[in-house]
Structures are given as structure tokens and as C-alpha cells.
Amino acid sequence: MRWKVIFLAFLVAGLLVPPAYSAGESAMERPGYLFVEAPGTVAEIVGIGSYATPVGLVLKPGNYTIRIPGNVTVAARVSVVAETATIIRVNPEEIEEAVSGEGIVSVRAIFNESANYSREKLNPPFNPLQKITGCGFGSLHINISRPVPMALVERGEEEVYLIPNGTFVHLGDSEGKPCIDYVETYGGSIHAESVRNATYLVPWARLEITSVPKDLTFYINGGHNIYIFYTPMGIYVPAIPHDVYNATAVGYYGTIRIPVIHRLDTHVVGIAENHYLIESVVKVAPNETYHINVDMEKVKSALTVEREAVRAVPLEVDSEPGNASTVVTDGVLRVFATTPATLFLPPGNYTVIASRDNLSARESVVLTESASAFLKLSPANATLHVVTYPGNATVLLNGEEVKAKNLTLSPGCYNITVEAPGYLTKSVEVILAPNESKTVEVSLEENPSVEDPEITISPPSGGSDDMKSGEMTETDEKDTPGDTQTPPAPPVDDVPGPPGRDSGSLWAKLAILAGVVAAVYLVLRVRR
């Protein structure tokens, strides 16, 4: 009988005691590695930090957004996989050469490996666009919300117009007489009313869009819904050079007054293939024609994502006193931790820098198999000299403005942000070792004359056949209509955290335990 009691005791202990692991060890058991190779640029890993490239980071597996600003702004959304190096290689100059045309203010190259920007094609793509005679026009179900509500109308394959809400437009002639309408758009549907004596008519510019190869998906101002367009594509867009106030026309029920028609002379032309989306911000003038071409083959060769398996070995790092901020780097790859910590890194030569308050220490480690580093912290400082172009730029150290550009600091990792009116803000990470003196030069680029719309890297949405996976953006500040190309999505901190105790699994164990105890009890009664 005694052995049966012992058996039951062990059974209860085995079911109720949780697995023996620490949250910290579990979080670092199988890290992934993210490398960005874009020499001469600064890469922002959203939610993590900004780093001069080339750079590598040891990260928890999950999804991350990488942004590289410049003449061509690059945004990439990739997944980091355990025990694997995800390598992003970018050549912004080659991307810039792959996009050509008139009126281009800025270019954005977007890569999202969890999205497919080329949706299933309609056949024929225009379904079809038929020539419309008289003063009528056809309405294409497409909803555009930014920069103002707009919709598409057509009078034939060569006469597709992007119509802003609440405007007077002229879309053709009937028997030599002008056909002028007051147009309102409602989430893709259109109300039009014939008017006369209009004091202002929307002027048009024409966009001729081509690509290599042909038949790539085409977007205008992010709009994408039921009708899908492909290159080559021609479209008339508003070219309103300034705000217009109190425009009037006479309609069927009397005078129609529009308090303000806002300036609208920039448009976003998007050309997409699979994971790639190239957006050109184009500034237009009335009665002008603009040709935009994207060589997608060049873009794909200038923005690549590769993966390689990584053999990682443990490095134990500790310090006296403990709880010190630590950075371990081989010059490219780096990992941040707090002592004591066990890190998993590829073999190589590493520098370990630990700091706490005004104490710090530095040690070199050759990592071939498992190794350890113990750092005894002592008083030490480092100096940082920041050189900015322009010279009057504001310098922020870890988000706080500093007046001097010659700084005496404790060793460790710092974020330097430089900003100036009329220039694009730039941030860069700096690692200072004990007794090190370092000079950092930060050159700002002039801000384009037209502010870029918010960069997004989400797949198209709005139809019942939308891609459901990978909907993501760089910010989650506000929601946008679901039928545009840019729905909001969770920020980067949605990566999985360390495993914990699951209350559901505990209840399951209790249920199993109850069943086992009941079965053993019945067996014992039968044996009696």
C-alpha cells in the first residue's frame, strides 16, 4: 500500500510543478540576427534604435520594420527567425536610378515580405472601359481618402480622371458644348449634377505610367479597391496650384457655393510587384504631361533580403558591481544586456563594455566555443565630439538637448539626434568605451519642398479578396479607411515575449490529475 501512496505523490508533483526555466534564459535561448548592409546610411529599426550601417543586432524572433531615409527612403518589413541571420542589402543610389520621370519630388522603396502587392488580376483589367459619348461618364469603384476624398471616373480607356470631392469639373464636350458637373464622392460612390456659369474648374495634368516589366500593379494616392490597374497606364489628375475660395456655379436647384477647394498639385504614384512597392511623389502643373517609369528589375536587385543559418555559442557576462548596462560588439553585430547575462553569438572577436553610473570597464573576448567575461568596474569617462552640417543644428543626447558639442560622458551606448529647420532629422547610435575619445560627423539632408505622406508598408485592402496577412505600418497614430492601401497595424513591440505560466495549461493538468486519481482509486477498490 505504501508504494501506491508514493506513486500518487510523485504523480501529483509531476503534474503541478511548472517546467524549470528562467524567463531571461528562455528569452535568449534562440535569438535571431538582423543585419542591414547599406554603407553610408543610417538605418532605424523601429522601436529599437538608429544605427550607422552596416549594422547587426541580436533580437528576439518576430517582425521588425527597418527605415533608411535619404533621397530614396527605404522601408522594409521582415521577420527575424531564431538561429538565423536575416540580411537586408540596400543600394539607394541604384534604386534612385531605377525610377525616372518628370516632376518627381521624392521616392520611397517599400519591401514587405508578408504582403503581396500584386493581387489577382482581373481579365480584362478595365472590365472594360468603354467610350462614353455625350456628357456622361462612368464611375469606377475606388475610394481614396488622402490627401482629400477622391474617386475615379472614366469616359474611355484614354480618359480616366481622378476627381476630388466637392469640385466643379469639365470632362468632355457634347456636340461642341462644354459638359460641366458639380461632383461629390461618398466612399467610392459619386453624385454628379450638371451646372453652368462655374467660376472655377479643376485644371488637369496627365500622368503616363510605365514599368519594366509591363503589367505591374498601379496605384494612385494609395487608392485600391475593386478596379485594379496595370502598367502602362494613363490618368488625368487634379493640378490645383493654390486654394480657391467661394467658387460658385448655377445648378438645377439654384446657386452652388463651395467655400474652399484646397490646393492639390502633388500625387503619389505607386507601382508594385509581389513584395515590392515603389512610390513616387509627383508635383504637377495644369495642362502638363508627366512620364513616370520604374525599372522593377533594378529595384529588386538593389533591395534584397537573404537568410543564413547561424551557429551561435554562449557568452556569459557578469560584472562587479552587478546590474551594469552592457554592450557586446564585433564592430558590426551588437547585443545589449544587463549583467549577469548569457548571450548567444556567432564565433568571433568581441569587445564587451559594461557601465553603471560613473563606473565602467572594457574587455576583449575571442569567442570560439562557450566563454565568459567578468568585468570589474572602476571610475572612467569618455569624450564625444559632435560635428554637424549645418553647424547650427540642434543636438539631442538620448532625447535631451545638449548645448555643447564636446561632451564628457560615462562609457556606454548613446543615441545622437541632430535636427535643424529645413532639414531631415537624423539619428545615430554611438558606443563609447572607457577613456575613449570619439568624433561623430552628422550631415543633414535638405527637406524636400513637398512633405512626404506617411510611409506605410501594408498590403492593399478593401475588397473581400484582400490579403489578410502582414498588414502593418510604421506608426499606429490613427486609423485610415479600410479601403485604402494603408491600414494601421500593430507596432514592432508585438514580437513574442518570453514564455510564462499558462493558466489554461494548469487547469488541463488539474483535470488530468483528477482523472488519474479517480482511476487509481477504482483500481485499489477492485484489488480489495
Given the structure, what is the number of helices?
Answer: 5
Question: What share of the residues lie within helices?
Answer: 10-25%
Rg on CA atoms, Å: 30 Å
Structural class: mainly beta
Let me know the number of strands.
40
Shape: elongated
Give the DSSP E fraction (strand runs of 2 or more residues).
over 45%
How many structurally independent domains? Answer: 4
Mean pLDDT across all amino acids: 80
- Oligomer category: single chain
The termini sit apart by: 11 Å
> Uncertain runs with pLDDT below 50, 5 residues or more?
1-28, 122-128, 450-455, 458-509
Question: Top keywords for this entry?
Answer:
single chain; mainly beta; 48% strand; disordered N terminus; 528 residues; Immunoglobulin-like; 4 domains
Word description of this protein:
With 528 residues, this protein is mostly beta strands. The chain has five helices and 40 strands. The protein folds into four domains: 32-113 and 303-309, no CATH class; 140-291, no CATH class; 313-379, Sandwich (Immunoglobulin-like); 382-446, Sandwich (Immunoglobulin-like), CATH 2.60.40. 12% of the residues lie in helices and 48% in strands. Strands 25-7-1-4-28-27-30-31-33 form a nine-stranded mixed sheet. Strands 3-2-5-6-9-23-22-17-18 form a nine-stranded mixed sheet, with helices on one face. It is elongated and about 90 Å long. It comes from Thermococcus aciditolerans. Residues 439-504 are annotated as: Disordered. Residues 487-499 have a biased composition (Pro residues). It holds the Pfam family PEGA.
